[in-house]
Automatic annotation (TrEMBL):
Example GO BP: DNA-templated transcription initiation
Pfam hit, one: Sigma70_r4_2
InterPro entries (alphabetical): RNA_pol_sigma70_r4_t2, RNA_pol_sigma_r3/r4-like, WH-like_DNA-bd_sf
Domain of life: Bacteria
Name recorded for this polypeptide: Sigma-70, region 4 family protein
Start and end residues of each RNA polymerase sigma factor 70 region 4 type domain: 143-191
GO MF annotation, one: sigma factor activity
Amino acid sequence: MLAKPLQREFQSYCARHKPIFENRVIQSFFRDESNIILLLKSQAGQADRQMALETRFRKHYFQIRFTRYLSSTIKYAALERLRFYRKIDRRNPLIFDVPLSDGRGDRSLGEALTGSVDLFPSDPAVASPEQFQETFTNPCLFNAFSKLSAKQQIIVTKSYALCYKDHEIAAQLNISPQAVNKTRNLALKKLRQMLTESG
């Protein structure tokens, strides 16, 4: 706790330099009483105290700037991570969250599976684009899928019907995973466009 004469002297100094002490960085620096004492001694003509005060202020200011830098880095890294996960979620929605159209209300696939219901008792495994296309109940989607190139049909089937990963499809087709990703995205864009046009 500062002695009363020192408190009065500091308050007088603050009043004379009011614009400076409105700055929050200055206010936070002088919350430390040892900095107030250094200031008052430097005003009394002690040059070594003035140097010590300046050194302390530089350190204090650096800490504030470094903390702000770390905060903004963490914030932007978190936002970038969220964007990445949103992109993944849009591209690969959780299969368990898909609603069922089995006439039993608004159940999801996950609820049906955990209820030990045999969802696909007689459905054969989808092994080709033709078999995958036969599972479509939407005629617009059926027609749009048939207009894709053979390569696009194969990649879409392997991605969504057989749940292969890009590197697995790439190994089977002897192409790069980037080519798989690009072809699938083009196919989805084409499907979206054709479905939009067909209304």
